[in-house]
Design goal:
about 30% helix; ATP binding; nucleotide-binding; alpha/beta; binds adenosine-5'-triphosphate; 9 helices; Rossmann fold
């Protein structure tokens, strides 16, 4: 077991003594489903100014971990604190309003005829695909600002179902930011994008990561090429366990990647980007 950011002393209720500085803290977490251990022995902490990337092969437990962080799942055992609140002892509906989350599951919940601006602005009302009373003008302005920052202001009145994959991803990232979350969770935001779309998204996420006013971020990806410059930490998962976790430069090595993916991998760095291939 790898203990990540182990410097935090635990108090008697399983929480660290500096919880107010921690966006996520898991201690001895296990998640079991149908006899399978999806996550085991998971100790992990994310601080206010950190941007984490989670890497690992298919089935490693990345999405399960992100769902825990999004307060969409409870651990079978162990403790999870999100934004200082302990799962199981807090109102998760309230907690979720403080978290921005994008995933394939969120994408699947958006009705195709929903207008792009409404997809974004409705996050502030914690609804999706329902008729709402009038939106506040300030909220609409904020949604438009977020769409503009992601380069899709011109799509504000388009129906979500008519968007390309890349445009949908950007719309959902704008939605995730709408409530000014304290924690931003992105599950495979670059999946399904072509090279240009991926590079554009990586650049935009890099801009966000480097913004000192941006929230703490956790991004799940399959590919080191998708790590946006500005990300600070990495967690490598395999078979529900942490292989390595900590500062990106320390953790992202050919040795750790090879152990994580069960192959002899070469890792190259070009500027502030990473590339990996089999030896
Ligand atoms: N409800 C469930 N019952 C049994 N097994 C489950 C359940 N949900 C997920 N799993 C299994 O848990 C493992 C981890 O799933 P998870 O989606 O977290 O992996 P992942 O790392 O995100 O994978 P991918 O990269 O393929 O998206 C997988 O083997 C999956 O089949």
């Amino acid at each position: 077991m790898c203990t990540v950011n182990a410097a935090h002393e635990n108090t008697r209720d399983g929480g660290p003594d500096n919880l107010e500085d921690l966006m996520i803290h898991t201690s001895g977490v296990e998640v079991r489903r149908g006899g399978n251990k999806l996550l085991s022995d998971l100790d992990w902490s994310v601080e206010l100014d950190e941007r984490w990337v989670i890497l690992g092969p298919n089935g490693a437990g990345k999405t399960t971990l992100l769902k825990l962080a999004a307060a969409e799942l409870h651990p079978t055992s162990g403790t999870v604190h999100i934004l200082g609140e302990r799962l199981g002892r807090t109102d998760v509906f309230e907690l979720r309003t403080r978290i921005g989350f994008t995933s394939a599951a969120v994408n699947a919940r958006v009705p195709g005829d929903e207008k792009v601006r409404d997809v974004v602005v409705s996050a502030g009302y914690a609804v999706m695909g329902r008729w709402r009373e009038r939106y506040d003008e300030l909220d609409t302005e904020r949604a438009d600002e977020l769409l503009a920052a992601l380069g899709i202001a011109h799509l504000a009145t388009r129906e979500y179902g008519t968007l390309s994959e890349g445009e949908r991803k950007r719309t959902l990232i704008a939605r995730a930011q709408m409530t000014d979350p304290e924690l931003l969770l992105l599950d495979e935001p670059a999946a399904g994008l072509d090279l240009g779309g991926r590079e554009d998204l990586v650049a935009r996420l890099s801009g966000l990561a480097l913004d000192p006013d941006a929230p703490a971020m956790v991004l799940v990806t399959h590919h080191v090429e998708e790590i946006p410059p500005g990300f600070t930490h990495a967690l490598l998962l395999a078979e529900g366990r942490v292989v390595a976790g900590g500062l990106l430069d320390d953790v992202l090595t050919a040795e750790n990647l090879s152990a994580t993916f069960g192959q002899d991998l070469v890792l190259e760095r070009s500027g502030d980007r990473y590339f990996a291939r089999r030896r």
